[in-house]
Amino acid sequence: MNLSQSINDFNEAKQVIPGGVNSPVRAFGSVGGTPPFIARGKGAYIYDEDGNAYIDFVQSWGPLIFGHANEVVESALIEAIKDGLSFGAPTEKETTLVKQIISLTQSVEKMRLVNSGTEATMSALRLARAYTQKDDIIKFEGCYHGHSDSLLVSAGSGCATFGTPSSPGVPSDLSKHTLVARYNDIESVRACFETSKNVACVIIEALAGNMGFVPANKDFMRELRALCDKYNALLIIDEVMSGFRAGLKGAIGLYDVEADLVTYGKVIGGGMPLAAFGGRADIMDMLSPVGGVYQAGTLSGNPIAVSAGIATLCQIKANPALYENLEKLAKQLIEGLKNAAQSHKIPLQVDYRGSMFGFFFNENVVKNFDDAKKSDTAMFARFHQKMLQKGVYFACSQFETGFVCSAMNEEIIDEVIAKANDAFNEILYES
Ligand SMILES: *Cc1c(COP(=O)(O)O)cnc(C)c1O
């Protein structure tokens, strides 16, 4: 495979953009090699600057549930652009999108639009702190909620201690308000509540997609809700990735646990920068200008992004078998990968929900971040590289989730499974 143009592009980018990328995972740091620079995408495929084609299981890290350059989204955007790009004034479209989201989901009575998942979770935390008049928050190791200061925190030493910054530049005065619990371990959450006595909220990905794909178990989610009620803390379910991906009602629909606040992103923007947070009306009405909690954005509810969101959700609504069909593809893929690995005696853990899937090169079932970290990342890197050379674009880290889109079909998945078989053959032969 010729990547010479991407290599040139990467070298040039690195001179003016730190690491050559505008979001670190894109640099392929954990799998090595040069990231293909993408020229265009169509449906299930992306094409790099050298003209190589790839079947894309990243789909912009989740947003593109209908694949690249979806015609309905494209024409909605072209129409919207003719009327102007941004006004910084209210538009009807914003209400249309918010009503669409509310009608399709549960736990949300009112909602506000923002530009990124980071903003959505950051604003939800501020609201939870204001509502409960408490300062501390609980998050889970391995869950990702964007890069705001309060959430770039890892577990301190020992159990149920206050967190320490996971990035230079985050003040420890701030991270000490974040407690870090173990995913799928309710006792660790209870311990955090008992340590702090000042917990405003728990924030969680009910389907963790940022430590690889690790679903919460149902009892754990139910007990988490009960603990939040017991300690008068809010439950924030972060559906930025799982919303309209895991199923029509996201992770909340699969677990049947009500959240007080919910965050959305990715799919609701159809590929444009758009996210949202919402929840109970009494909490949301604490936001300025109704209440005193300040939150704002020059480009929030941008009409172009909102148009892409509406076009995406209209298609979702018009297609009742969408998630069932996507889940069939995810199941076919993940069972095919599992069989291919097994027949080469390579241990592989797999799981999927709706259009989301994940696999770990690991002997044991992965239930939390400690388990995930025991995965064979060197094996993942080899597999990733081989699949890339064969024209299959998987997320470039063991600790990410994969996505199927509606532009894929059984033949494409069969092709990928055949290539995975070849990749495992080569890996065994070479070692
Ligand atoms: C992607 C993601 C975010 C952050 O969203 P950005 O738009 O990248 O800021 C937050 N939470 C979850 C669960 C995510 O997957």
N→C terminal distance: 22 Å
Structural class category: alpha/beta
The residue fraction in helices comes out at: 25-40%
Largest sheet, spatial ordering of strands: 4-14-13-12-9-5-8
Percentage of β-strand residues? 15-25%
The CATH class designation of the largest domain is: Alpha Beta
Taken together, the total number of domains comes to 2
- Mean pLDDT over all positions: 97
Radius of gyration, in angstroms, nearest whole number: 21 Å
| Small-molecule binders | pyridoxal-5'-phosphate
Low-confidence stretches: none
For the record, the CATH architecture of the largest domain stands as 3-Layer(aba) Sandwich
Total number of helices? 14
Report on the biggest sheet. 7 strands, mixed
Q: Overall 3D geometry?
A: globular
Subcellular location: Cytoplasm
Main location: cytoplasm
Pathway: Porphyrin-containing compound metabolism; protoporphyrin-IX biosynthesis; 5-aminolevulinate from L-glutamyl-tRNA(Glu): step 2/2
InterPro entries: 4pyrrol_synth_GluAld_NH2Trfase, Aminotrans_3, Aminotrans_3_PPA_site, PyrdxlP-dep_Trfase, PyrdxlP-dep_Trfase_major, PyrdxlP-dep_Trfase_small
Tell me what you see in this structure.
By secondary structure, the protein is an alpha/beta fold. It has two domains: 4-69 and 320-430, Aspartate Aminotransferase, domain 1, CATH 3.90.1150.10; 71-318, Aspartate Aminotransferase, domain 2. 39% of the residues lie in helices and 16% in strands. It has helices at 4-16, 71-82, 92-104, 117-132, 172-175, 186-196, 218-230, 250-255, 281-284, 303-317, 322-343, 369-373, 377-389, 410-430; strands spanning 38-42, 45-48, 53-56, 110-114, 136-140, 153-154, 164-165, 178-181, 199-204, 207-208, 214-215, 234-239, 261-264, 275-279, 349-353, 356-360, 392-393, 402-403. A hairpin with a 4-residue loop joins strand 2 (45-48) and strand 3. The longest helix has 22 residues, at 322-343. It is globular and about 60 Å long. The mean pLDDT is 97.
